[in-house]
Design brief:
mainly alpha; 2 domains; 9 helices; about 70% helix; about 0% strand
Length: about 200
């Protein structure tokens, strides 16, 4: 049995792993409490329903699994920025054992259908990412690292859409996480090479 002091966190992490591996419908309350080692009564002490738990797992996913903290990112070069981003994605985490079984497309699709607040959660994260990418793109333009008339926010969206596309491709082609990261790096390198200033 787990300690009562960390039961809610344990429920959250366990449920997120199960929801990432299986569909919402396929994960029962019994699956969650059995995996955590709690009774249903103890579960209801922390969560009023499976629906509420699912909402919290989606928030946890966006706040912890998708890169959210840009404080440590390089601030002087677009190339260094996105290469650092890729390194962060390679860092081990608690979900490594799910890497090849994770179905992000189904998880996010179910979240968009089931949670009224999903669009707000997703948009807040997306806007934060666009803002951070826009800042480094502006720096890269000012330092003449890249040259383009594409507005910063639109270019930020291009980088992010390339990575999102690689993740969708992973779902439809059964690629591994490592293969998806290779695809993202290739696409980001290609876009960067189209933009960079060739110094003589």
């Amino acid at each position: 049995m787990i300690n009562v002091t960390n039961s809610k966190e344990q429920i959250l992490h366990t449920a997120l792993k199960l929801f990432l591996k299986n569909s919402y419908k396929d994960v029962s309350l019994r699956d969650i409490v059995n995996e955590v080692g709690l009774t249903k009564g103890a579960f209801y002490h922390y969560y009023e329903s499976k629906e509420k738990l699912f909402e919290d797992t989606v928030k946890h996913f966006y706040n912890n699994m998708i890169i959210a903290d840009y404080k440590s990112f390089p601030k002087t070069s677009l190339k260094e920025f996105y290469e650092f981003y890729l390194k962060k994605l390679q860092e081990p985490d608690e979900f490594d054992e799910l890497d090849d079984d994770m179905n992000l497309f189904i998880f996010i699709s179910e979240a968009s259908k089931r949670l009224p607040a999903f669009q707000q959660i997703h948009n807040a994260h997306h806007q934060k990412e666009i803002w951070e990418w826009s800042k480094i793109i502006e720096t890269a333009k000012r330092k003449k690292e890249i040259k383009t008339f594409i507005p910063n926010e639109e270019l930020a969206c291009m980088f992010l859409n390339l990575s999102d596309g690689a993740l969708v491709q992973r779902t439809t082609t059964n690629k591994t996480g490592a293969e998806s990261l290779t695809d993202i790096k290739r696409d980001w390198d290609n876009l960067y090479n189209l933009l960079k200033v060739n110094k003589r």
